[in-house]
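Following up on my earlier message about flavin-adenine dinucleotide. Here are the inputs again, as you asked, copied directly from the submission form:
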Amino acid sequence: MVKRTFSFEFFPPKTPEGMDKLRATRDQLALLKPKFFSVTFGAGGSTRDHSLETVLDIQRAGYAAAPHLSCIGSTHDNIRAILQQYQTHGIRHIVALRGDLPSGMASTGEFRYANELVEFIRSETGDWFNIEVAAYPEYHPQARSARDDLLNFKRKVDAGANSAITQYFFNADAYFNFVDECAALGVTLPIVPGIMPISNFSQLARFSDACGAEIPRWMRKQLEGYSDDIESIRAFGLDVVTDLCERLLKAGAPGLHFYTMNQATLTTTIWQRLGL
Ligand SMILES: Cc1cc2nc3c(=O)[nH]c(=O)nc-3n(C[C@H](O)[C@H](O)[C@H](O)COP(=O)(O)OP(=O)(O)OC[C@H]3O[C@@H](n4cnc5c(N)ncnc54)[C@H](O)[C@@H]3O)c2cc1C
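Thanks, got it. Here's what our run produced:
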């Protein structure tokens, strides 16, 4: 059986206090022995320095770290410089993304899509990096059609991606369908489900609207019904997300990637309930 991969995602804190808090979260989550921690990269490079700082901090503590890298709004020279910086620090794992243009930024720069970034990373650095790309079981919101999105995902794989992490979803069938559709195209790399623990309904609804992740009506209704009752929201979220993870793993998902939102408690509870 292929070894499953479990990983945790952070966003880079902007303040020294935030960094201290993240260290505590990281040390708590490190007890679960994930394969790596990944660190997001602000659109248009807005958090570039914080991302690098956070990745190096994780590395210094003795854990594996994978920076995300988004290319929209960047030039080849910018990206080359970042890759060189990562290589200098011995980083060999990267999550390669297009990203989204921040409002007000007009120019897409020299990269249009993530497949171009993957191609560039391979042409500049050969096999140095283990490259992850993003996958969308419910399809990317800008995709012209489901088929188009699938073929665009394949472009990233053909350009040299090693594995993929999905956008979060609450509908396991969307994931199973996506993996089947990929297999039918000969795309068999590991596609690790991205898991979003639920702590706050309004925030989740906002994110989901923006990224095209569906909150099924039965979940939305129930979550809305809890109003400001955080305890009930969390308890319901833990049940739903643990069930989802269980179903995914039972069906052979090659691991789980948790969007931790820089918090340890919910991810740890789900982990323990899964008996991982
Ligand atoms: C695991 C994960 C981590 C993420 N981390 C970050 C992060 O750190 N920072 C950040 O800013 N954002 C992050 N995002 C969000 C991501 O940047 C957005 O979803 C973005 O809109 C798309 O990025 P992508 O790499 O999937 O783009 P792409 O794969 O380039 O796809 C974007 C859209 O373009 C279409 N497309 C792709 N290639 C082509 C082509 N060659 N021709 C025509 N159409 C094409 C696709 O169908 C899709 O609709 C993350 C998303 C995921 C799932």
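One observation from looking it over: Residues 5-274 form a domain with the TIM Barrel fold (CATH 3.20.20.220). Hope that helps, and feel free to reply on this thread.
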